[in-house]
Amino acid sequence: MESNNVISFADKLIAAIEQKGTPCIVGLDPRFKDLPAAITQQCLDEYGETLTGITHSILRFNQQVIDIVSPYVPAVKPQIAFYEMYGPPGVQAYLETITYARQKGLLVIADVKRNDIGSTVAAYSNAFLGRVPFWNNQLKPVFNVDAVTVNPYLGSDGIQPFLDDCQKYGKGIFVLVKTSNPSSSEFQHLPVEGEAFYLHVARKCKAWGENIMGNQGFSSVGLVVGATFPQEAIQIRKLLPQALFLVPGFGFQGGKAEDMKHFFINGRGAIINSSRGIIHAYRQEPYARKYGEEQYQQAIAESLQTMIRQVDQILQ
Amino acid sequence: MESNNVISFADKLIAAIEQKGTPCIVGLDPRFKDLPAAITQQCLDEYGETLTGITHSILRFNQQVIDIVSPYVPAVKPQIAFYEMYGPPGVQAYLETITYARQKGLLVIADVKRNDIGSTVAAYSNAFLGRVPFWNNQLKPVFNVDAVTVNPYLGSDGIQPFLDDCQKYGKGIFVLVKTSNPSSSEFQHLPVEGEAFYLHVARKCKAWGENIMGNQGFSSVGLVVGATFPQEAIQIRKLLPQALFLVPGFGFQGGKAEDMKHFFINGRGAIINSSRGIIHAYRQEPYARKYGEEQYQQAIAESLQTMIRQVDQILQ
């Protein structure tokens, strides 16, 4: 497991994209109030109006979503905030969601945006990507995902422990470079030596990723580049042809299919994420009218097929 | 609880500093391998070589540390990475550590460095500072700490949900501005319009905090400014006389007592944190030789008194 023959995350992701035939991935960001009543009613009956009832509702919903999407997508991206908000049982639901997704053959990208000084980041990295010290210096995996999102603000020593675990265990990171939210420009676009700040972060990512190149020409140090900023994606892609882009913000946040081509290089090297637009599709038009909450599974399935088709047309 | 008469976090912190007579706080960053054998042996007997054994060891140790330090300091700062690394039971130990510290009259600053897009940050903010939606739109506190550390990279909309909860519930945030780690300069010192990047972040913090001013002249939007960078602290203090500084990196990371005066304004407005230097003092000189692991409690108590005295001398 710690040999030099470990397969790089980048190669695993590229292979999974080719196998499934799409770079679309699904964000597992379940909102309790938006869950189908059929599921919450079932858990209410079993667990009452308790925290356990909530976190089991979330887990059960996720398992159904994973059953629906796992034949079609290479990866899922569970956002930890929506689980951590329910405390330890919420984190338990997060862990079981990860386990279930991996059992179904999916790669799992934990959207955690963790960051800290080096000695603290080592704890995060060990927990999500590596191994954690137990009794008698035994090392055991805890969350054991394939990749995490990380925040670059503290510089190299807040990234290095992740790089070590990436190399050792065939894992990956996606560094926040240009985020999908409206105010991302406040700091990320500040001018530094004639260039936007985010491009300096992108250059650092290039350096961080140079020793973790896979055989398919991509590094396991990827970048988060928001779907809502295609012009910035062009700039970053010029600098980093060998970087994997994780592209959030498609659909619900406003990212458009026709812009997606800018995130790829020769049709490869990016994954496009939609969260609410897929998993809660039954609450949005046209699926709300067509299927309604009762047929939430059909709404999830159809919204995913629509997204896959849209992105596929762009890549043809 | 949601009335306008809520006491601001800034006022609560200033009052607690005055009551205890020191701005020193203790970081609860327990490393399992560094815990006293007396505690781990006890938990090994009770729970075996299990994850529960580890997380109970951590919790029991924390409770003893809190018993020792709570008469003397205004606040503790538990670093979540060292709990999250042990999965859901680790987060349970984190929650119980928070509860115990608050029962002992301490303010609790959750060192989580969370950050994300607005809708996701709302989940974090509700979990740590505010109230989380349960069944039937009931709102309940989950971690219920007094303040959190946050990362600014995503700009205002990744901060606003925290500001809302700060105002509503009398809570605070400390925004990473100039961090204590060696590589913090890589991005934080990039030149933007003739000024280091971190000063632009500091200015934003000023704007974010202007509507959450307490009666003592300080805002509940504080800043993280590393003890290892006193010159930068002078620059930031010029811009933000009304900001609370959370100053990590004292002791173990190299921050020196004589430099601490630069972080204050008229002897007020900063809290100085030491983590490993206090809680694992029995593993470091001169306490390791003087007390050894058996008398870990004396080592913790004496290292704290030394720190308090050093900082007090500077402030006289």
From TrEMBL, chains A, B:
The keyword Lyase applies. GO terms for molecular function: orotidine-5'-phosphate decarboxylase activity. Keywords: Decarboxylase, Lyase, Pyrimidine biosynthesis. It comes from the Bacteria. It catalyses: orotidine 5'-phosphate + H(+) = UMP + CO2. CDD domains: OMP_decarboxylase_like. Residues 23-291 form the Orotidine 5'-phosphate decarboxylase domain. Pfam families: OMPdecase (PF00215). Pathway: Pyrimidine metabolism; UMP biosynthesis via de novo pathway; UMP from orotate: step 2/2. Its EC number is 4.1.1.23. The active site is at 113 (proton donor). Belongs to the OMP decarboxylase family. Type 2 subfamily. This is Orotidine 5'-phosphate decarboxylase. It comes from candidate division CSSED10-310 bacterium.
